[in-house]
Amino acid sequence: MDGMTGDRERILEWVERAAVFCIDEYAVPPIAGRVLAWLMICDPPEQSAGQIAEAIGASRASLATSMRLLIDAGFVRRRTRPGQKTHYYRVDDDAWERVVRRRVAGLAAFREITAAGMEVAGSDPARTGRLRAAHEVFDWMDKAFASMPGPQHEGDADEA
After folding, report:
1. Contact (CB, 8 A) for 60 and 50
2. What is the DSSP letter of 74?
3. Distance between CA atoms of residues 138 and 67, nearest Å
4. Three-class SS state of 88
């Protein structure tokens, strides 16, 4: 854990705690949860697959699918360094905002599906009531999220 401050055991306990959250809330495989958590706390912030595998106690082979999943979801970015073949992975500061915004947009898009469902259901109040309840929640969420400012990151105030 080069450059890592703090107690290794405490850091790995936190990684496991954060990984369990990701497993439960985002339905990611355990290795992916550990990778994401590790990349959020590691130093240096860019790590090779070998460094990640060693840190979380996983085989490099088991990382491939998890890395692809995290990259596709927008949590992790892969890059190379000039003159090196090794890939390095990192969680960018705005990764969570991008992922959450995409998730909220996807949920809000379901509002259109519930509207179409109400048309298909016709005048049956039991069927349209369930659809309307869902539609109202997605409509409320979309409006509430659209009116909220984004997160303020360190240094943002300096740039304003």
Report:
1. yes
2. T
3. 31
4. strand
Q: Does this model's pTM top 0.85? A: no
**CA 124 – CA 75 distance, rounded (Å):** 43
Amino acid of residue 150: G
The tokens for 155 are: 């240094």
Which residues, at least 6 apart from 31, have a Cβ–Cβ distance to it below 8 Å? Answer: 56, 58, 62, 63, 65, 66
Sequence letter at residue 122: G
Length of the chain counted residue by residue: 160
In angstroms, rounded to a whole number, what is the distance separating the alpha carbons of residues 137 and 119? 18
Per-residue pLDDT of 105-143, as tens digits, reads 888 889 999 999 999 998 888 889 999 999 999 889 888
**Centroid of chain to Cα 106:** 14
Tokens for 156, please give them: 């943002």
pLDDT at 5: 53
User: 130 is written with which tokens?
Assistant: 């369930």
Q: pLDDT confidence of 4, banded at 50, 70, 90? A: low
For residue 97, give both structure tokens: 């905002």
